[in-house]
Every structure is written in C-alpha cells, then in structure tokens.
Design a protein that fits this description.
This protein has about 550 residues and is of the alpha+beta class. The protein has three domains: about 20-140 and about 305-375, no CATH class; about 170-300, 3-Layer(aba) Sandwich (Glutaredoxin), CATH 3.40.30; about 410-550, no CATH class. It has 14 helices and 20 strands. The strands form four sheets. Strands 2-3-4-5-6-1-7-8 form an eight-stranded antiparallel beta sheet, with helices on both faces.
Length: about 550
C-alpha cells in the first residue's frame, strides 16, 4: 500500500517576520474544541464548568474579578494594570460566555485571545466550547498550537463527549471486533467534526506503549480537538476487512482520518498515512518533529471549518444578544427614556469599538489568507512541475518497456480477485489507476469470469492508454481489434445529455473534485450480475492515465 503522508513542511505556524508598521495586527485562529457534558443529578455541572473557567481567568486577569462574576453575572474588566476580560450571562436560554486577552510573556505585542461558551441544550446536555486565537501587532514569531490549560482537567474529571463519544485522559484502545465496529461507526459518522488519529502497533503486539511515537502525548496535546486511538495488531486486520487495506493502518503506522470519511468514495490520500520508517526518519526533527506536525495539523483543522462561528458563537455576538435582552426587559419594566437612552449609548460605544476590532481582524485574516493562498499556489506549481518531470520520466521508461514487446499474456493473471489490489499496483501503476470505489465494487462482485476483469484492465493499459497519449488511426484500430477479441465494447456511458439525470452515482472524487465516469467497457446485457460486465472510467488529462471508478457490475441509473 502506498503511503499518503502529510508534508513535513506543511504544518508550521511561522511566516515571514512582519514589522508592526506594515500591518495593524496579524490574527491567527489557533485551536477550537466543542464538547458536550451529560447532566449530573448530584451537582450543577453548569456551575462547576463555569467556575473552573472563572478560576483560570482570575489567575490571569491581573485584578480580582467582581464578586458578582462568580454567580454568573456579566462583567467587564478593563482597568489599568488588568488584562482585558469579560463575561456575559443569559438566563433564557441559559448561556454563559467569557473572553480573556492574555498578553504573551515572551513575545512583545502578542496576545492570546481565549473565548469560551457554555450553554444548556434543549435535550439538557451542556454544550461547552473554547476557541484560542493569536493576535500579533509586532513582529511575527513562530508559535506552537495548543489548547488552553483549563480544558484538560475539565475533561479528565469525567463526562466529556466529543462527537457524542466519551473521551478521557488516555487514548482509546481498539482490540476486538466490538471496538473495531465502534471505531468504524465513528470514522463514517457524517456529523463528526474532529479528526481521528489512529496509531497502530507492531505486528503481533497489543501493548499500547509500542506506538511509533507516544500516543498519550499526542492525545494530551489534542485533548478535546481530536480522537486518538491505539489499534492492536489483530484489530488492524479487522479494520482492513471493513474499510479496505488501502484505508487501514498497521505495523506502527499512523493515519489521520479527517471529517467526511467515506471508504466508498474517498481517495486514500485524503486521510494521510505515515509508515513507521518515515516517522523514524522524519526530515523535520525526527519523531519529535513528526509529533509536532501531527498535533499542529489536527488543531489547525479544528479552526478551519466554515461553521466555526456556528459551533461556537463569538463573545461579541453573545454580548450583543444580551444587550438586546437587557433593552427589551428595561422597556417591559417601564424604564424612563433617559434610562433607555443610557443603555443604548453604552451599547453603541461597545458596538463601535467591537466593529473596529472585528474590521481590523477580518482585514488581517483576509491578508493572512491571501498570503497563505499565494504560498500554497507556489507550492502547488512547484509540485506540478516536479510531477510533470516525473511523468515524462515514467513515460520514457514505459516506452522502453514497450520496446521489448511487452504483451499482456506475459502478465500472470490470478485465478481469483483476492489480491487484485496488489496486482494492480504492480502491473498498472502509471497507466491505469483504480479508485477506491472500484475496489469496493470488486469486493462485492458476483461476476463469474474473473479473468475478463484482469484482461479488461490490461486492455486499457496496453491499448487505450497509448491510443490516448499518442493518437493516430493505427493505435485506435489496434484498440478496437483487441476489444473485439475480448468481446468488449467501449463507448460513452450515456448518450446525449442523459448523464445529468443520474445524480452522483456516476461520479467519483478525484484530485479534489468530482469527475464523471463518462466512458465504459461493457459485455453482456443480462441484469444478472453473474453474467453482465461493466467497467466505468474516465481519462485524466493531467496525469495522462485512465481512472477506473467502478467495476464489474452495472451502476444503477434512472432506467434501472
């Protein structure tokens, strides 16, 4: 199986140093967690969590918090000598939010902004979220992504759930069929918001301490932002049975399953795997460098969601809601116009200040995004050039192989489909690529002529690919002749515009976008899957190879 690792240079938070005169502020979201807690009949969990947050804020505020803060009332702390802090409480629905601007003790003009929210859901679950943001108004310096320190004891005290699953002080050990089933449910859960980082053990091992890097350290560094799993050797085989070898992890490898996991439609590279040898020789700092990358990537993805603000509304948004509630209650209580005007003026002052800050922050976020996008485009362009060079080298090697009159009958065709993935990687690489969805189709195959499946793939490699790459009537005639010999017909998947009626069935995710399986090989017209053969594919101009998206059965359409 190929390694789909994350780039060792892709995780850092260090940018070019920027003088304060060139920008007002540099704003970078660092991490975000959203947890739920079940109600505890013996104590007020809302009050317990809120008090833990207030203790943490009080230790850093520089001035004592007002007594009313400890009962959940709103407060603002902006005195000279104090760090900016505040909280807002709403009675119905019950919600409490707070913010602390904590000055960095090492880097001048850098502030760590921590926002936290605690609310009671209609199902009585407590929803708790924390977002950490780094705001720099001086020179930019590298920082390490982290989670605020008060989060860990809250989780370790018990009852915390991430994506509806209990989490605790240690990684979860997956060792048998039941726990593998639970893991697959988590991986495939469409509502999952957090990464799942799976550490596998050496062959034959069930000792959790034998991971390539300490899984416990990664768990503690991502606690609340990612699921960390340790997979025993025996469980690796069970996982492979359910998601396929190409999506499994074994022999001290580490795999990160990002959100939206679908073994039927995804490419393995979307969920990066790093093998043990690569981890041991990680180019950016060895195993410690790999651990830093793994943690940083998981935390970065926690704040890279388009629904980030929906999951955890900002402190300013909640304060505005509280101000409107206060104004409404004042009117209902019959407050004088002077009293209402004072409330309105206070709100205008706060909103003006907040709008200015958010305008600066949004502008800087856009600048940062533009800079990172430009850097990503340059990296992508460099990768494209390297890929094109490698592609030309591969094509030259293939031409040399063809010059030795390589024919498909020199390739041994297995009697079963059991190890077809290994066979494809050995004999088709560089010419024909099978999407993971195609392997899923093969696993479900009822087709009786397994030899034709191998022969059809070799047909694409030896005749269709040269025809597409080099063109010409002679190569086209050779391809048609070979199709006739095998009893196959190659044609468009649909006629006219009918493809638009088939939804997503005839599409696969490839290279970051959905591609239509617009061509197919077919044999037989029976609806019985044992006797009818179909192979759906498309030609990728960028890589100059065939991408097979499904075989060997007929895909459902509006007519079937």
């Amino acid at each position: 199986m190929k390694e789909q690792t994350e780039s060792p240079k892709s995780f850092g938070s260090k940018q070019k140093s920027i003088k304060s005169s060139s920008r007002v502020s540099l704003v970078r979201p660092v991490s975000q967690i959203v947890l739920s807690f079940a109600p505890n009949p013996s104590k007020d969990e809302f009050d317990r969590i809120r008090t833990s947050c207030l203790i943490w804020i009080s230790d850093r505020a520089g001035r004592p918090l007002p007594p009313s803060a400890w009962s959940g009332e709103s407060f603002e702390l902006e005195e000279v000598g104090a760090q900016r802090a505040g909280a807002v409480g709403i009675e119905a629905p019950r919600y409490w939010t707070a913010r602390l601007d904590d000055a960095d003790k090492q880097v001048p003009r850098r502030v760590w902004v921590t926002e936290m929210g605690l609310g009671e859901a209609p199902n009585k679950l407590l929803l708790f979220g924390v977002r950490l943001t780094c705001v720099t108004r001086g020179e930019d310096e590298e920082f390490t992504r982290s989670i605020p320190g008060f989060v860990r004891p809250l989780i370790e005290s018990g009852g915390a759930m991430l994506d509806g699953r209990l989490i605790g002080s240690e990684p979860k050990l997956v060792s048998d069929q039941a726990t593998v089933d639970d893991l697959v449910d988590l991986l495939c859960d469409p509502a999952r918001e957090a990464d799942v980082i799976v550490f596998s053990l050496p062959e034959g091992s069930s000792n959790p301490s034998e991971t390539a890097i300490p899984a416990l350290e990664v768990h503690q560094s991502t606690l609340g932002a990612a699921h960390v799993i340790i997979l025993t050797s025996a469980a690796s085989f069970l996982l492979s049975d359910q998601v396929g070898k190409e999506f499994s992890v074994f022999r001290q490898g580490v795999r990160t399953y990002v959100t939206g996991f679908s073994p039927e439609f995804d490419q393995p590279s979307k969920h990066p795997l790093t093998l043990a040898a690569r981890i041991a020789n990680w180019s950016e700092g060895g195993t410690q460098g790999y651990k830093k990358m793994l943690v940083s990537r998981a935390l970065a993805r926690s704040v890279a969601k388009p629904n980030r603000e929906h999951l955890l509304p900002s402190f300013s948004a909640i304060r505005s809601v509280a101000s409107r509630n206060q104004m409404r209650k004042a009117r209902e209580a019959g407050s004088t116009d002077r009293e209402l005007l004072k409330l309105a003026e206070e709100e205008i002052v706060y909103l003006t200040k907040t709008m200015q800050e958010e305008r600066e922050n949004n502008n800087e976020l856009l600048k940062t995004a533009d800079e990172e996008r430009e850097e990503a485009l340059q990296i992508a362009q460099q990768a494209k050039v390297r890929t094109e060079m490698l592609g030309r080298r591969v094509e030259l090697l293939n031409e040399r192989l063809r010059s030795f009159d390589r024919e498909e009958d020199t390739v041994s065709i297995p009697s079963s489909l059991e190890n077809i993935q290994n066979w494809c990687e050995e004999h088709l690489s560089g010419d024909v690529e099978l999407h993971n969805r195609a392997y899923q189709g093969i696993k479900k195959s009822k087709y009786q002529d397994s030899k034709l499946i191998y022969s059809a793939l070799l047909l694409l490699r030896d005749y269709y690919v040269p025809m597409k790459r080099n063109g010409g009537a002679a190569l086209q005639d050779q391809f048609i002749t070979k199709c006739n010999e095998l009893g196959l017909e190659e044609s468009a998947t649909f006629s006219g515009d009918r493809w638009g009626q088939e939804g997503e069935t005839y599409k696969v995710n490839y290279a970051g976008r959905k591609r239509l399986l617009d061509r197919h090989l077919k044999k037989g017209s029976s609806k019985d899957e044992r006797y009818s053969f179909r192979l759906y594919f498309f030609w990728d101009d960028n890589t100059e190879q065939v991408i097979v998206g499904w075989l060997p059965s007929h895909l459902d359409n509006s007519m079937t």
